[in-house]
Structures are given as C-alpha cells and as structure tokens.
Write a structure and sequence with these properties.
The chain is mainly alpha-helical and 720 residues long. The chain contains 24 helices and five strands.
Length: 720
C-alpha cells in the first residue's frame, strides 16, 4: 500500500515544477493593509513570506509545469473580458420556455417584430429534440410544459401545424398527456389567449394583498421570486384579459379530448389525492370556494386590493432592472399594467418592455446545413455573481490583491451594495441594508449567497485610498447576512424563515418552489464567509449553522445543492465552509463526504451530475457526464477536506488540464445551475471558466505551499 500511495503522490507531484521561485512574481502574496473584522478594527498585516510556507516536492518534470501554464492562460482569458466599469458577466442561459413566452408576450401586446420573431422561431426549431419535444436542460428528455409553450409560440408566429417538425411535436405532446398535463404557469399563459379555460386554473384572489404582513398566509410568507411573479398575476386574475387570435393559430389539436368535454377537476393540479383528507385536497376544496367568491366579489374589497397591488407593483418598478429583475415577473408586470389601463406608449410600459428587450441574446445556429441567426431570452443578468466568484478565483490563482483589474472589480462591487430597505425587513426586522443582489440592479432584493461571496472577495482585496470604505462595506454586509440567519441555524436566499411548507400543497404551487427555506449550500457559504473574516467556531452564528448542516447531511455523506446541480455542488459548498470555520477535517461526517465524492468520480477522471438528481431517486445522485464546473467543485470539496494527496484529486486535475483549450478556456454545454429544482435550470456560461481556474489554483497552492491562499489570508486576519 505504501508503494501504491507513493506512486499516487508522484503522479500528483509531476504536475508541479520544483524550481525554487517557479511561481511568476505576479503570483506572490502581497500584504493586506486594513482588515480585521473579528474586532471590526483595521490593522496592518505583515507581508506574507511565501518561501517559508513552501512544501518540498522531490519530483520535477519538464516541460514547464502544466498547472502553472493552465492558470496563466485562464487568467489572461479573463483579463481580456473585463468591462470598463470593473465587472465581469457572461450569458445566463435557461431553456426554451422564456423565448416561447417572449413571443407570446409581444403578440399579447400587439408589438410583433417580424425580424425578432423569425430569429426566435429558428432558435426554437434548432432546440427541438429528435422525438419532437423540447427539454428543460441539456441532455434531458422532452418536458410537457416546455413543449406546449414552444409549439404554441411557433403557431402564433405563423408556422404551419403541417410542417414535419410540428407534426412530430404534436405527437410527442399528446404522448405526454397533452395540454392537460402542463403546469399551472403554462395554463395561465394559454388562458390569456383563450387556449385554456380559466376554470382550469387555480384561483388566487387579489384580496390576498389585504392580509397583514405577519399573517400566516400573507403575500410576504412566500419567496421573493414568487411574490414578484404573483402580485402582477393577482391583477391579471382579477381582470382575466384575453388576446384573441385566429382559429388556425390555436392549439386544440394538443388536447387528448375535445375541450367542451373536459372536467378540470380530474386533471392537474385539481386531481385529488386518494386519501380522504390531505393538505392538497383541502386546498383543492378551498379553490372551489374562492372561484364562487370571484363570481360575486365584494366590490369595496376588490377595488381596495387592486389599488394596493397596483401601488406595490409600481413602487417596485422604480429601479432600472425591471420588477424583481427576473423575466417572468417583468413580463407579468407589463400585462398587469395594461389591465390597469396603461397604454403601450405609457413611459412605465415602454420602460418595462425595454428592460425585457435587454435580455435578448442574438446568436446563430446550424439548420439544414446552413448557419442562420437566432434569438433567445435569458432570465436575468449575473454580473455580481460572476464578478465576485471570479475575484475569489483570481486571488487564489495568485493575482496581486491590488492588481488594477481586481481594484476595479472591488470598487464596482462596493458601488452595488444595497442601501435601501427591501422586502426582507418583514422577516428580519432588526436587519439594516447592506447586502448585494445578483443582477445589475435589484436594490430591493439582495440575497445571502451573493452577499457572502462578495464579502469573501472584498476581504481578499487591497484598494489603496479606499481602505476605510472597503472595511465599512464588508462590515455592513456581514451584519446583514448574520441578521438573515434562520431560527433553524441555516440561511435562505432572500428572506428569513421562509419555510411554511403548507404553501407547497396549494394547487397554484405545482412547481413546489413557492418558498425560500434554509439550505445546506447557503449555510456552508456563510460559514466560509465567517472564516474569511477571521472568525472560527466560537462565533455565535457558527454553532447553530454546524448543527443545521449535521442534520441536513444525507445518509451517503453528501449534501443537497439547492442552487447548483446538485449533491456535488452542495457538498463542495459545505466542505469549503467547514474548512474555513475550523472544523476538524478528520471528523466522520467529513470523511463520509470525501468517500462519497471519490465514489462518484467518472472513469475519465472528471465528475458530473445530471439534473435528474433532483428526483427522489438515489441512483442519480452524483452521476452524469463529466463537466469542467462539476469536476472543479468536486476537486475543491476534496481539497477543502484535506484530501490533497488523493489519487482522485490527481485524476481530476488531469481531466481539467486535458479539457482546457488553447486560448485558456473550457467548454461546457450542460445546465449545472439551478433556478427551481425539477422545473427550471440554468447554464452559467462562465461556470466552466472560473471554477476550474479556482480549483487548479487551490491545487497548486496546496501542493507547493501546503496551504491555500485563502487559508493564509484567513490565518493572518485571525492572528492580527
């Protein structure tokens, strides 16, 4: 066994050069001038002596080290792509549903643009699966709701139902149960064009707006994204507008039985559970009563509720990013404004439509052997997330803390810190503004994940002339994140204790994503943030968070990833946090996690995990085609857990080196980000860039120095 271990170690060592001073001078550590957040008082830290921490390695290779070269080329790739304002941002790709909905929205508003429409039609045609349907993630099967929306959007755009690809689509949709099996949001969209009966849509009365904020079923008891989407819908539900279309553009052919014969109570989301009394059955019965009320509402209450909903929506439209800065809410707000009497030329409507148009992505694809231009829609922008994650990666990769690019990024991030009280104040009344949002602008909705990653990034930077501002920004951000810790010890993304699971049983919530409860990946991230600021397990927030994570660990040793696909992501987030806060890396829970990760490594040396892992089926956990981003997460998880000498780590590093292209980039087409599990997935176009860079940098530092750069910075902060 010792011989085998020695061979494994030699394989790892062969990736690194042993020449003294082999690191480029630009990669050496630079002193931090003012950061000490254990006591919240700035101190001057001494220079970091890089040579003292070097770990002797006895196996040199030639040509020059592959890891150094990979890191250098990746850094160069990023430096050439920074925006003048200091941020980095890449496309955030979803699935075809947004593009389909966008075509419907423009038709609903009578704002059809033939050129846009033609390009979007090509995109939908190019993304169709061979079996005729459309998936919600790369490599996934046809999904009924995405397929129905794409088919209807194509017909609205003038595509004939007799086209061979449309015939295949119709047959696939009917094989999946037809329109009746689509989700609630699809049925609402179809009802706006009289392609589905409002009676088959769960009712949500606008009078919900009149409930007190602290009431159990208040609009503030659901997540931020649900609130931003639902409040405009409440206005739409109250008016039930219909955009009439020619009969030939309708989709009656997607119904398994004639529409006149449908009994909606037999179909989702109203089909009852077999047991006599369940929460779902209760809410189905309640929906019947709400529909009866809606036929003869109390006029005074209805008008008061509509006024309150309108005021809320208009007030939340003030920023430059659109309502909630996410597409579905932005689209609903325009239709709601029209219901309230706003014309298409009203400045508020024009502004809202312009904000949606900024989400357009123009590209090209191959159709019938010809390259043609296409258009699709992304759900929102991700500059804060991309910039903060990349900053952390670049610092680990040895870029000086006061490098001009990082100074620009740091100043940009500080300029985006929220100063306004948002909806989070309802659940966390003692909190003060100080978090960061995800998009270019979303002042009312900062989130814990972005805030924690930004704070980690800022804590590693040196911005001459802005030391006080930097320190104050970090302190304010830290206070906001800590104020958002839930009573269970974990953190949700946008609100505190947003966990009333009964909401997931209402017919409207068939996507099961109405809430924002505490999750393992966010708890791990917040522990990592605390560690980056010099705290350890004695911090008051650490104990409850550690207890939460202990409770949430799966039997196989992994952790669920709410915001990334999936258990590989969650396990990385947790292990990184446990290392940063000072947890014993020999603890049984950590060793179980390491064993689980190593058991999921693919024969090619990489890791991958399909979105299928969000099903409640053990066989899909940690399984999928290897991707650069998920391989990087697994590597960072293993190295965070102290498994630097693991043969699995050496193989994973080799996988990343083999997959890197000449320009320093990696290629990945899989959806490895999560919007809503089982419903909506994301492809961050730069996940495959900055996570591999980060992982390779961690590997180089641990192999050559015995410590990550983040470890050294953290230890110096804790000592000062």
């Amino acid at each position: 066994m010792n011989i085998i271990k020695a061979l494994f170690t030699r394989l790892s060592d062969s990736l690194l050069s042993t020449v003294q001073g082999r690191l480029d001078p630009a990669t050496e550590f630079t002193p931090i001038t003012s950061l000490r957040l254990v006591s919240d008082k700035p101190v001057v830290l001494p220079s970091l002596d890089s040579s003292a921490a070097r770990r002797p390695i006895g196996h040199a290779v030639s040509p020059p080290n592959a890891v150094d070269d990979a890191i250098r080329r990746s850094q160069s790739w990023f430096f050439n792509r920074q925006h003048a304002e200091g941020y980095w941002v890449a496309e955030l790709e979803a699935d075809t549903t947004l593009t389909s909905e966008y075509l419907m929205l423009r038709r609903f508003l009578d704002r059809v643009d033939p050129e846009r429409e033609e390009k979007a039609v090509r995109y939908l045609q190019a993304t169709q699966l061979p079996d005729g349907g459309w998936p919600i993630y790369y490599g996934g099967p046809a999904e009924i709701s995405a397929s129905v929306k794409a088919y209807f959007a194509l017909k609205l755009s003038g595509v004939s139902a007799t086209e061979p690809f449309m015939v295949r689509a119709k047959e696939r949709i009917l094989a999946m149960g037809g329109v009746l099996q689509a989700n609630v949001f699809t049925k609402i969209t179809l009802a706006l064009f009289d392609q589905y009966d409002w009676e088959g849509v769960p009712h949500m009365p606008v009078e919900l707006m009149l409930l007190p904020k602290k009431f159990y079923f208040s609009i503030y008891a659901i997540s931020y994204w649900s609130r931003a989407v639902l409040i405009p819908l409440l206005i739409i539900f109250a008016h039930r507008p219909v955009c009439h279309i020619p009969r030939e553009q309708g989709i009656d052919e997607l119904y398994p039985i004639p529409r006149a014969e449908i009994r909606y109570w037999k179909y989702p989301p109203f089909n009852k559970d077999q047991a006599w009394f369940t929460p779902h059955n209760f809410f189905v019965a309640l929906d019947v009563m709400l529909k009866l009320y809606d036929r003869m509402p109390m006029r005074v209450l209805r008008e008061k509720a509509l006024h309150k909903a309108a005021c809320w929506m208009v007030d939340h439209l003030k920023g430059s990013g659109g309502l909630g800065a996410i597409y579905p809410a932005m689209a609903n707000s325009i239709m709601a404004l029209q219901c309230l009497g706003y014309g298409t030329d009203d400045p508020l409507v024009v502004k809202a439509l312009r904000e949606i148009e900024e989400l357009e992505v123009y590209d090209s694809t191959m159709i019938n052997g010809e390259i043609v231009p296409t258009l699709h829609l992304q759900p929102c922008f991700s500059p804060i997330w991309d910039t903060a994650l990349l900053t952390n990666a670049l610092v680990e990769a040895g870029v000086p803390q006061d490098h001009p690019a990082l100074q620009k990024a740091g100043r940009y991030l500080m300029s985006r810190q929220t100063k306004t009280v948002g909806d989070w104040i309802v659940s966390s009344q003692n909190a003060e503004p100080g978090g960061w949002y995800f998009q270019f602008e979303n002042e009312l909705y900062p989130d814990v994940d972005d805030s924690a990653v930004v704070i980690m990034a800022l804590s590693k930077l040196k911005i001459p002339g802005h030391e006080g501002e930097l320190n104050e920004s970090i302190c304010r951000g830290k206070r906001w994140v800590l104020a958002m810790q839930g009573s269970d010890g974990g953190w949700g993304a946008y609100d505190k204790d947003n966990n009333r699971v009964v909401f997931n049983y209402i017919p409207f919530a068939d996507h099961k994503a109405l809430l924002d409860p505490s999750t393992s990946d966010l708890a791990g991230r917040c522990l990592e943030m605390l560690g980056a600021l010099g705290y350890d397990k004695t911090h008051p927030a650490a104990g409850p968070a550690l207890a939460f994570l202990k409770k949430e660990q799966e039997e196989d040793g992994s952790w669920y990833g709410r915001w990334g696909v999936n258990y590989i992501y969650g396990t990385w987030s947790v292990l990184a946090g446990l290392r940063a806060i000072g947890e014993d890396l020999s603890a049984p829970s950590i060793r179980r996690a390491v064993a689980w990760l190593e058991s999921k490594q693919n024969p090619d040396g990489g890791w991958g995990e399909s979105c299928l892992s969000y099903r409640d089926e053990l066989e899909h956990r940690g399984k999928g085609e290897s991707t650069p981003s998920q391989t990087a997460w697994a590597l960072m998880a293993l190295m965070s857990a102290g498994a630097i000498d693991s043969f699995s780590v050496a193989r994973g590093v080799q996988f990343l080196l083999r997959r890197q292209m000449k320009d320093g980039a990696w290629e990945e087409i899989s959806h490895t980000g999560t919007g809503f599990p089982r419903v909506f997935y994301l492809r961050y176009h730069w996940y495959c860039q900055y996570f591999p860079l980060w992982a390779l940098a961690m590997y180089r530092n641990l192999r050559s120095r015995g410590k990550m750069r983040a470890d050294e910075l953290r230890h110096h902060i804790a000592k000062s």
